[in-house]
From TrEMBL:
This is Glyceraldehyde-3-phosphate dehydrogenase. NAD(+) binds at R73, I74, D94, S181, N376. One of its GO terms (molecular function) is glyceraldehyde-3-phosphate dehydrogenase (NAD+) (phosphorylating) activity. Residues 68-212 form the Glyceraldehyde 3-phosphate dehydrogenase NAD(P) binding domain. Homotetramer. It is found in: Cytoplasm.
Amino acid sequence: SFSEYMLFKIYTLCQTKRSWGHCVQHRPCLLLTCRISMDQSSSKPSLVEVVTDIRIHKNLHSSNTVLVCLFGRIGRLVLRACLQKGIKVTAINDPFIDLQYMVYMFKYDSTHGRYDGDVHAEDGKLVVGNNVISVYQCMKPAEIPWGEAGAQYVVESTGVFLSIEKASAHLQGGAKRVVVSAPSPDAPMFVMGVNEDKYDPSSMTIVSNASCTTNCLAPLAKVIHDNFGIEEALMTTVHAYTATQKTVDGPSAKAWRDGRGAHQNIIPASTGAAKAVGKVIPELNGKLTGMAFRVPVADVSVVDLTCRLSRPASYAEIKEAVKKAAHGPMKGILGYTEDAVVSSDFVGDAHSSIFDAGAGISLNDNFVKLISWYDNEFGYSNRVADLLLYMHSKE
């Protein structure tokens, strides 16, 4: 266990080198780092805060979370994010790929690069660094022996078991709670930095981390609404293609345009991300809707939020409000840039949303268009891990 002497030494390091790199409002969600480039406006922590956060971090190493994900795009990146944040991962379930292929898929990634660490198979388990992860190949969630693996949390990222009823099957195998990495038709939905304080561990065992686009839109919408009010708004997400699309033209019964070649076309598509903001910010319910364009890039998307404000504000005032939030209560969730950036500049960015101050415009003081980028894979995966951390801190 940590001695009081070591806690004092770490506290001293935080005070002298200003290395408390986390969001002040959500301390349990992010971990202590030795980052010198601390924003000068952020306050230093007290010794009590340091002790409390280290104890939470320490306890997370003895707690377990599990990925059930078919080891797809989000599943593999959630594993990366969990390992980076010190969350112990004990098991993975994927009925469609064998262990050696898991090693290969986790080690090599065409978008995010080769994993920086040892990855191999040993005694029927996936070994990543010092993490030994059990591998299961069950088709039905109820058959996965989560209890045998010591699992407390399941990340449900198959995209299939989205409802409370379907996701609850994981509890039959011994899991304690389930985080669905997609919008759910009936599970409570949380967006870190926006409404996680509504999480109630006494009544919520199945929760949703919403979608990547909702995670980008909601923090920005919250800042704008809290400061200026939103009367009504339309959102467009220019979204990278995903695995559900076709490499060349093929059948798509649900929406014919979705069957067209992803690399060849800009494809209009539907999205529930804007309406979902009304679930996490009830005051905006019925005031937002939106659509998507799927475009030929592998990763990083951008939200265009066009809104009519309740209170007049210049674009300079809007920028200042977003910047203040990005450097304050939403640090680590909402980013801010005035650089002349493009989409590839955000590959691997862990923020949910990065406001592009130079890309937005205003018609007048009540009608504005705001632009915010997001790595729809890595940023979202980090929020899944952060939600796990937050839920654990409330146990």
